[in-house]
Amino acid sequence: MPTAGFADSRFESAAELFNRVIDESPIGGAAVAVYVDGECVVDLVGGESAPGTPWTADTVNVMYSCTKGFVAVLAGTLVKSGALDPDAPVTEYWSEFDAISDTITVRGLLEHRAGLSASRHDLTLDEVLDHHTVIRTLLDQEPLWEPGTGYAYHALTFGTLVDELLRRVDGRSASAMLHDVFAVPLGVDAWIGVPVSEEHRVAQFVAARQPEPQPIEPGSPFDWQVRAMTFGTAFPAFAPVEPGVGFNSPRVHQAQLPGANGITSARGLAAMWSAVVTDTNGVRVLDDDTISMMTERCVTGPSVWGEAGPWTERGFGVMLDTPARIPLLSPTSFGHDGYGGQAGWADVTHRASFAFLTNNLVFGSREHDRWRGIIADVRRTLEGS
Description:
Blueprint: E1 4-7, H1 12-24, E2 29-36, E3 39-50, E4 53-54, E5 61-62, H2 66-81, H3 106-110, H4 125-128, H5 131-140, H6 157-170, H7 174-186, E6 190-192, H8 221-230, H9 250-254, E7 262-264, H10 266-277, H11 288-294, E8 319-320, E9 333-338, E10 342-347, E11 352-358, H12 369-384
Antiparallel strand pairs: 1-3, 2-3, 2-11, 3-4, 5-7, 6-7, 8-9, 9-10, 10-11
Helix pairs in contact: 1-12, 2-6, 2-11
């Protein structure tokens, strides 16, 4: 299916690479967008948002863990305003967190060091979609490791934990803050909890191949990594792409699960990251000092589960340019990727942003190959401009 949209003449080769991605995709569709100096220079869509339905400029997509990047930026806005001290104990703002630790800092929570990457007990989908139930469950359990002594990716719990911190400090949820800080000022459609009236626009996830089931030994590092993405039984581990199930469920789309269920278009995703680093439609979300704090390289190497590298380098809730994994627009790039091949990045050096969203999920070592080549081409263009 042909692509639609536009690309500035400087980015024609990136557009050609995106066209090739669409041509070579057996199912599904995708969208890519690039901003430079606050202006959209690439906005392309192609393929199908659902079987038989073209992906259009009106299509929006679950961005999975790209959502975490914006939850971190929302925390950054409170640091910028002076309402949140990244080096203060979490308990200074959220007293009940002393059930877990009275010493771990806000920074430690944002660095995935809380020891709460998964629930020890299986939760139903109903329980997972209720913010307060998840918070009670996590505070009532023994941490998986001593908080602050190591890190492991909090795939779903990160969003809920930081969301509760935002509520304690600001009074607004992550969903409300995303609406107020990004969506309304920028005039973009972006939600954590899509309105029912917009559900018809959400792309349906598909996959040419489901991930291969693997044996899981209860209590093993692999078990905890799987549970971090499933809450035990709430989400399917090895068959995540079925109509109406998991992240194809309208119930999940319309809930507030800030670790993974943000929904927007590629243009919306790129516009929001652009506004983090440069004036975009009159909006600049963070200042240089806050960005410097957020992009300090504080997390690298294997997690407490000891997985093999290359390891993603992280800062204050954001992923950083990690050449051994995927080179981004420059060493000053930061943002977050997402399950199955999603990506959203900002870049300080080039005052630029990049976004790629797709409903055709790819798993394993080639998960991010589709946008890897496109972002490399955009980088070459920016370095030569």
